[in-house]
Amino acid sequence: MLFNAKSKLIAWILTAMFSMLMLGPAAAATTGSSAFVDQLPDPVAVVNGEPISRETFLKRLIEYHGVYVLENLIGETLLKTEAEKRNVSVSEQEVDQRVEKRRKEAKVTNPDAFRSLLLQTEYTENRYRDEARLAVMAEKTFASKAIVTDKEVEDYFNENKSSFTISATAKVKMMELRTEQLAQKAVEMLNAGQSFPEVAEALGRGVLGSTDEPINIPLDGVSPWFRVEVERAPLGKAYGPVKVPGDPRDDASPAMSYRVLEVVSRERERLQTFDEVKDDIREAMFNERMYG
Length: 292
Fold this sequence. Notes:
There is one protein chain. The chain has helices spanning 4-23, 25-31, 33-38, 54-85, 92-105, 111-120, 125-142, 150-159, 180-191, 196-203, 224-232, 274-291; strands spanning 45-47, 50-52, 165-166, 169-177, 207-210, 215-218, 238-245, 255-267, 270-271. It contains twelve helices and nine strands.
């Protein structure tokens, strides 16, 4: 298995190789592309005694990722060329501000959590900063071409109102029990003032599962029989027993278990207002013009 240091070296070499491909064979020859490749270990790894050759590794990388790397390099080169023409530069302070903005949007402000996120997404801090730098450069270079007017935002909303629908949802506490008798007992205990955790503890192994806090459920994504029960249940009271059919497509199928519900709130399907979505529309249109 390759170590991180080797992985970074390989990524850097591949980037250089694709850059040379963009310049053509002559440029590749004069800059000595083979020297970069020679820095890769051969074999790049040995697995259970079987070597993975450098040639196999490079071929697979180019087949799987070559097109995307090349497209990114072309885009970056065009952007940098245009920025130079317009005397656009990006300071380290601007990069810092963009990195901080992205971290806040991702709700990751703790440095350790941020480093963990980078590892999970196979990013390095340098790569993260490079992408932030390119985003700032693009906005400074092309922002004047991407201005979105109030009328454009309003027209888009009026033409696409149906796409701004909020689906019906409900906040529900639930308990799953083995038998109808146990479910009925749970309803009585809950309506007598006991909490879901207290009832679950009292009924012990008869409880298959229980929520301590309400969960938000999109009603468009649930079985029809369950949606009917959620919409039928009184707000703020334990309701049931609700039979959970063994076959969710057939309400008449034998019970798999019984459920007790407490519906805390329900939101009907509705169209969002213009004021609710205008900022999102403007941002989406701006990004489409900037980066699309």
